[in-house]
Amino acid sequence: xxxxxxxxxxxxxxxxxxxxxxxxxxxxxxxxxxxxxxxxxxxxxxxxxxxxxxxxxxxxxxxxxxxxxxxxxxxxxxxxxxxxxxxxxxxxxxxxxxxxxxxxxxxxxxxxxxxxxxxxxxxxxxxxxxxxxxxxxxxxxxxxxxxxxxxxxxxxxxxxxxxxxxxxxxxxxxxxxxxxxxxxxxxxxxxxxxxxxxxxxxxxxxxxxxxxxxxxxxxxxxxxxxxxxxxxxxxxxxxxxxxxxxxxxxxxxxxxxxxxxxxxxxxxxxxxxxxxxxxxxxxxxxxxxxxxxxxxxxxxxxxxxxxxxxxxxxxxxxxxxxxxxxxxxxxxxxxxxxxxxxxxxxxxxxxxxxxxxxxxxxxxxxxxxxxxxxxxxxxxxxxxxxxxxxxxxxxxxxxxxxxxxxxxxxxxxxxxxxxxxxxxxxxx
Length: 428
Ligand code: NAP
Ligand code: HSE
Description:
Layout: E1 5-10, H1 14-25, H2 27-34, E2 38-44, E3 60-61, H3 65-69, E4 76-79, H4 86-97, E5 101-104, H5 107-123, E6 128-129, H6 140-147, E7 153-159, H7 162-174, H8 178-187, H9 196-199, H10 202-216, E8 225-227, H11 235-243, E9 246-257, E10 260-271, E11 283-290, E12 294-301, H12 305-321, E13 349-356, H13 361-371, E14 376-381, E15 388-395, H14 400-410, E16 421-425
Parallel strand pairs: 1-2, 1-4, 2-3, 4-5, 5-6, 8-10, 10-16
Antiparallel strand pairs: 7-9, 7-11, 9-10, 11-12, 13-15, 13-16, 14-15
Helix pairs in contact: 1-12, 4-5, 5-10, 7-8, 13-14
The protein binds NADP nicotinamide-adenine-dinucleotide phosphate and L-homoserine.
L-homoserine binds next to helix 7.
């Protein structure tokens, strides 16, 4: 009988219990696929006597995840607690220091500390794997590091936060305002403990930063991600976009440009008939473009017990087979520091504004746009019942810098009833 691979699991919530279930229910299948048994030897969580719907009595219990991570009978430390710092980071560092492989679903920790953790893992000659951290059940890390290794990746983009996609598609289908659907998502338990991680685009930004590192061989740079959440999207935006043949998505885009690495996570208009435009509910989609493969599209559940545990087990089985790949596809000390480039690729923009309904108001806006070199493609003024006029402008392709110059100037005009909202129209 070959030597078993022994797991120590810290975190027995949604993902952790999912992993316990797979290891218990699919023991024979996993052994056949990897050539050795995969066993759990020890677990840890905050509360020992909680009913988690799985039998844990045959595993050793540790109150302290650091103690779990350094146990002699643990080969792989499976970190499923969450949080960028605190116990997750301390236990991951301890595991690496003790020569254990690490598998984690923790995008926040890797987005903030991925470079140093990957270097530590390589110095200790152990694996640090994170398939479950990006786009849940979609094996996108494996696709980038292995299946697409013969490509220069030119662009990576996607919808990587299921909660935001649920909110935006539900607003569209039910005609409900943002606030109502946000509350619905809360009742359904979709929101992170800090909802700003979801609706502020931070969670999806963490995921994009991790994908960028692999795609472009660069150091993880979450601070370089331009972040914009979905909180300013109104049902009017959803409807205007639909009228023009678009859907609004919280879209992440990363590409290497002549000026540096462009990484942005923001609500964008995408054609409603495109794969991204048709993505409904909590589903995720990642689009990868490479010089050889052209374009591939991966779609699947971005969260939930089964899908996320499935991704964790993909990493565990690789380790069981003895398959090793650097955390970000190339050795961590070879990752290059890329200068962050701010949305340099020109695009058309959707502008929604509310103007005081008085003579010359629209002319002032048009003048400001013209002075900044932003050309108007289409314009509509909607019916209004009070003293303000809702105006919608679609620009020709322009840079974000030129648009920002115009938006900044507009705030000084005496005709703006509210702050304008600008959404990029992305070609996908
Ligand atoms: P969760 O349901 O909140 O579970 C977290 C677990 O960690 C709980 O069992 C908790 O213990 C335990 N824990 C927290 N602090 C601890 C500490 N100081 N010491 C020991 N145990 C501690 O979280 P989750 O949804 O499973 O997420 C786990 C990780 O996967 C996170 O990094 C998350 O971002 C990532 N992820 C989750 C999903 C998803 O669909 N849920 C998808 C992708 C990635 P108690 O149960 O005793 O409170
Ligand atoms: N809050 C995340 C989402 C969970 O909605 O996609 C999965 O990472």
